[in-house]
Request: fold
Amino acid sequence: MKSIHTAVRDQFSQHADYYAQSSAHAKGDTLDVILDFADPKGTEQTLDVATGTGFTAFALAPKVAHVVATDLTPEMVVKAAELAQEQAIKNVVFSVAAAESLPFTDASLDLVTCRLAPHHFQDVPAFLNEVYRVLRTDGLFCLTDSVSPESEELITWQNRVETLRDNSHVYGYPPSQWDTMITDVGFSLEKTAHVRNAQMSFLWWVRPHQNPPEVVQEIRNAFAQLSPDEARDHYTVKPAGDDFYFSWPMYAVKARRR
Ligand SMILES: C[S@@+](CC[C@H](N)C(=O)[O-])C[C@H]1O[C@@H](n2cnc3c(N)ncnc32)[C@H](O)[C@@H]1O
Reply:
């Protein structure tokens, strides 16, 4: 079986241009909440983990002293560096690194951010331990990611659907498990928030050019098997002819290193 890191690189190496142009990733509540929780003072030595094509790093750059933006996929890092050059952003540097093994010395950073990525991580507790290690005492960790609802049935449903569509999906935890994992490492939780990504067209999201028709149908059937309350309350499902629109629940955390 492919390792998760290989699956992630295989998946994201094909999508650097797509991500760079994706308005769903360029802005939205999950970015605003990170900026709000980080509340930068202008002096922060910052790390953005799993930066993709750099949206979070670029939004932080004018508000902090310096950003190192890391990602597992070299093609994403190359694209992000090109965009930084085009936009004349001078205080961001890029590096290829796994979230589970951060190439920084202990207590060397003031702020670590990570947006829309840990559901692809091979080992989230190892990532959280690394974030704790590289932050100085009182340093801040700000996270947003897609989460499962607090229901065993829907945790199984959502992770099955996500993995069918993208084999680099590992696990979407529910918010309560995030809180436990983050506090177990030693952080104190200062704020949390429930947010959403933009409504997505199923027919766009399901990547029909990449996934075979039987897989697309299996995922469509899985949505059809949700109860009307689950579809509405957890996934904001709205029919639109042959298509439908939906969104994933997202969770945001502001945690301080003690
Ligand atoms: C949806 S994109 C990230 C979006 C980005 N953080 C933003 O704000 O636009 C997910 C990224 O996570 C990266 N990734 C997945 N697993 C990783 C890991 N274990 N370590 C580092 N990066 C990882 C992928 O290469 C991909 O670029």
